[in-house]
Design goal:
There is one protein chain. The chain is built from seven helices and 16 strands. It has 334 residues and is α+β, with helices and mostly antiparallel strands. The chain has three domains: 108 residues, no CATH class; 75 residues; 126 residues, Trna Endonuclease, Chain: A, domain 1, CATH 3.40.1350.10.
Length: 334
């Protein structure tokens, strides 16, 4: 994501371009930073693109991939922006996110260190002990008058080499666990406004979405799977649902309608549908207002549904006729 956004959007970030949110959720600023963690060897342990949504005094982390779901407001009039004020507002949250990122990396580095200790350190120790045994035997032969000086020197050289390698490996393991945060690099900021032109039927309805999510989660549990709500992470899907028996994972995007109607997938959701293919599912919950909702399940929607790309709102619109024809229908009783 970091490389893609730097390549395709860095100029927009630095110029403070205005974007439109077709879903009508956002009206504020999104500020972007590059976070970096270094280890004790001087190497970069990890980089992460960080995004923060600022609306008034409220600041919250937001997935940088949200930019894929926003449309450039080509006809928008620019406005004066106090960059320093925005950066100061976000500073504390940037550091908190970097602290969390460092913890993630440290946890992984500790696991890697245990593997290196088990297979690297212990192997070298075993070789050193083995050479000690060989040297004891050779010195005993020397005491009996045998000419084994060359063999002893060779064994001692090898032992010394292994001991140096052991100390170097131990030092490297410790340095790789010593993680420090580099100063975050400010990449830029964009202004996000609500799209007032968007069709009300297609605009996100938060209450309906909550109800749709609940229906989808209950359905997954009824099927014996373990669903995890990740809708607030903007991953391109709302639910990660694991089958404990076989270990497969469903990546589920949930759409909800009061009656019946078209649904739209964001660019990010469409990317993920194409990436995960048969593991990606669209759960379209229709007729919620009737009290007897119907759940339409479409596997691999990117290949199995005919969607219309709506360029000006960066969405893929799917008519209800497609959902009805291609979807597996489950009623509220499952």
């Amino acid at each position: 994501v970091l490389g893609y956004i730097e390549k395709n959007y860095l100029d927009s970030l630095q110029r403070g371009v205005v974007f439109i949110d077709p879903d009508g959720r956002l009206d504020g600023y999104i500020v972007f930073y590059e976070g970096r963690i270094d280890d004790g060897t001087g190497a970069i342990a990890g980089k992460r693109l960080l995004g923060f949504y600022i609306s008034g005094d409220d600041v919250k982390p937001i997935s940088p991939s949200i930019i894929w779901d926003l449309a450039p407001a080509n006809d928008a009039v620019g406005e004066a922006v106090d960059i320093d004020l925005i950066k100061n507002t976000a500073d504390r949250h940037v550091i908190e996110s970097l602290v969390d990122y460092r913890k993630e990396l440290l946890s992984e580095r500790i696991k890697q260190a245990e593997i290196k200790k088990k297979y690297g350190v212990e192997s070298l120790k075993h070789l050193i002990v083995s050479l000690d045994g060989d040297l004891i035997a050779l010195k005993a032969r020397k005491e009996r008058g045998e000419n084994v000086d060359l063999a002893i020197r060779n064994k001692e050289d090898r032992k010394s080499s292994y001991e140096k390698a052991l100390e170097k490996l131990k030092d490297q393991i410790e340095k790789e666990k010593s993680l420090t945060m580099a100063a975050p690099r400010f990449l830029g900021v964009i202004r996000v406004v609500t799209d007032k032109r968007q069709d009300e039927e297609m605009r996100a309805d938060f209450e309906l979405e909550e109800m749709g999510m609940q229906i989808a989660i209950e359905y997954e549990k009824a099927q014996g799977r373990v669903p995890e709500d990740v809708s607030d992470q903007n991953l391109g899907f709302d639910i990660r649902s694991k089958d404990p028996e076989v270990g497969t994972i469903r990546y589920i995007e949930v759409k909800a309608r009061a009656d019946t109607g078209p649904v739209s997938l964001t660019l990010n959701e469409w990317f993920k549908a194409n990436r995960f293919k048969d593991d990606y599912y669209l759960y379209a919950v229709m007729e919620i207002s009737t009290g007897n909702p119907e759940l339409y399940i479409i596997q691999n929607p990117a290949e199995n549904l005919k969607a219309e790309e709506v360029v000006d709102v960066v969405r893929y619109s799917i008519p209800f006729s497609e959902i009805k024809e291609k979807g597996l229908v489950e009623d509220g009783g499952y």
